[in-house]
Specification:
Elements lengths: L5 E6 L8 H10 L3 E6 L9 H8 L15 H8 L2 E7 L1 H9 L5 H8 L4 E5 L3 H5 L1 H12 L3 E2 L3 E4 L5 E5 L3 H14 L10 E7 L3 E4 L2 E3 L6 H12 L3 E7 L9 E6 L2 H11 L5 E4 L6 E3 L20 E3 L3 H7 L7 E8 L3 H12 L3 E6 L10 E8 L4 E8 H13 L3
Parallel strand pairs: 1-2, 1-3, 3-4, 4-5, 8-11, 8-13, 11-12, 13-16, 16-17
Antiparallel strand pairs: 6-7, 9-10, 14-15, 17-18, 18-19
Helix pairs in contact: 1-2, 1-8, 3-5, 4-7, 8-9, 9-13
Length: 400
């Protein structure tokens, strides 16, 4: 029998503790053996019986329980992953300074597996220099600290500090587990990713668009978070949930996408242009709906060129050493057109794939060839878009 991956779910004392129940469900239903280690404060929000019932394992709360099993050492030693969700400011401070005053902090000190923190707290607490320094310390040591989401907090407050969606935290955990005990190679790096497809309006109800779903760009964002990066995702017209730990900037048109990417790229180490950006837009925008007139053919739609964002970023890089990755969606002469585009755009890497109505767009799978400016070519066979994303980040990491 194949042994189930052992996951320790640490729960610290924040109101978002109830959301960890959904994360626990996702972990157990996907075949993980989960042991919950709640802090004493967290039990004010969710009781010990709930954790035991949902996990199928006793919830460990005290160092002094089952002393003969030495739980403060054994739990961390045997884990394949430790995830703390929510991670309060207090928990981040204790972890950063190596304090061990309860079972969860002892477990963090003894763990030799990957560790993921999903912070949740009020905006002022998250932005405080002490918290930011603690987060930086944990990241330098190899822990993955997910950026909090922006949204409704306790009471009437809103801002950054909300626990990310449990489904998206689960995705980060899954990626980290798949990589195993590997040093996060994008720690301290800021990566900007564009995703989705731009829409160029003809009138208030119609637009010129494309079939891009944004799934490849979102896969790149999720895998980058799991590898320790700070991620800005410029999202054009997608219907996808925000990836955990990602700052999402929503845009509609190619011009809006250009503005957002250029702003985010000012301090970025990597820019990945995975969005399908419209090459053209209508020369004129009709303020009212264009009407159909009986017996008359429609007037031709004049088009003008949109800015070439990939070429612009490649030619005028915001900082020395910035790595730029482009995508080429081709329908014929795929590699020949891809090589020509790599030369024309001036990027470091170009991901070339064949697309069509029932191919790549909207699919969970993809295959591609990654062309490099130094002449190297890496073929990625048909498989999940996350697998292609990992290979792209492998290629990027060696160029940083």
């Amino acid at each position: 029998m194949v042994e189930k991956p052992k996951v320790v779910l640490g729960v610290s004392g924040g109101i978002a503790a109830y959301k960890a129940c959904e994360l626990l469900r996702r972990l157990t239903e996907s075949g993980h053996d989960v042991r919950v280690v709640p802090t004493a404060a967290s039990l004010n929000f969710v009781g010990e019986a709930t954790w035991s019932a949902l996990s199928g394992n006793p919830a460990s709360t005290e160092v002094w329980e089952s002393v003969h099993e030495v739980p403060h050492v054994r739990i961390g030693q045997s884990a394949d992953l430790v995830v703390v969700a929510p991670a309060t400011a207090d928990m981040l401070a204790k972890a950063a300074h190596g304090l061990a005053d309860d079972l969860l902090t002892n477990t963090l000190l003894t763990a030799r597996c990957p560790v993921v923190f999903a912070p949740a707290m009020h905006t002022e607490m998250w932005e405080h220099p002490a918290t930011q320094e603690n987060v930086a310390t944990l990241r330098r040591r190899g822990a993955v600290v997910i950026e909090p989401a922006v949204g409704r907090l306790t009471g009437k407050d809103t801002g950054k500090g909300r626990l990310p969606d449990p489904d998206e935290i689960f995705e980060v955990c899954r990626h980290v587990l798949a990589r195993g005990v590997v040093e996060p190679d994008l720690v301290g790096r800021h990566v900007v990713i564009s995703a989705g497809g731009t829409r160029e309006p003809l009138d208030p109800v119609r637009f010129l668009g494309n079939r891009s779903s944004g799934k490849q760009g979102y896969a790149l964002a999720r895998t980058a978070v799991a590898r320790g990066a700070r991620v800005t995702l410029v999202s054009a017209n997608t219907a996808l949930a925000d990836p955990a730990g990602v700052d999402v900037v929503r845009v509609g048109t190619a011009v809006q996408l250009r503005e957002a990417v250029l702003k985010a790229a000012a301090d970025a180490d990597v820019v990945v242009m995975a969005a399908a950006v419209a090459d053209f837009r209508p020369a004129e925008y009709a303020g009212g709906k264009i009407k159909k007139k009986d017996g008359q053919d429609p007037a031709p739609v004049a088009l003008v060129r949109n800015p070439d964002v990939l070429a612009e970023i490649s030619a005028d890089r915001a900082r020395a050493g910035q790595v730029v990755v482009g995508f080429a969606a081709e329908t014929d002469d795929v590699l020949a057109n891809g090589r020509a585009k790599l030369t024309r755009k001036g990027c470091d890497l170009l991901v070339v794939n064949e697309v069509g109505e029932a191919r790549t767009f909207g699919s969970e799978e993809n295959e591609a060839v990654i062309l490099a400016s130094d002449g190297a070519e890496t073929a990625v066979p048909y498989g999940p878009k996350e697998a292609l994303a990992e290979v792209i980040w492998d290629q990027v990491a060696v160029r940083l």
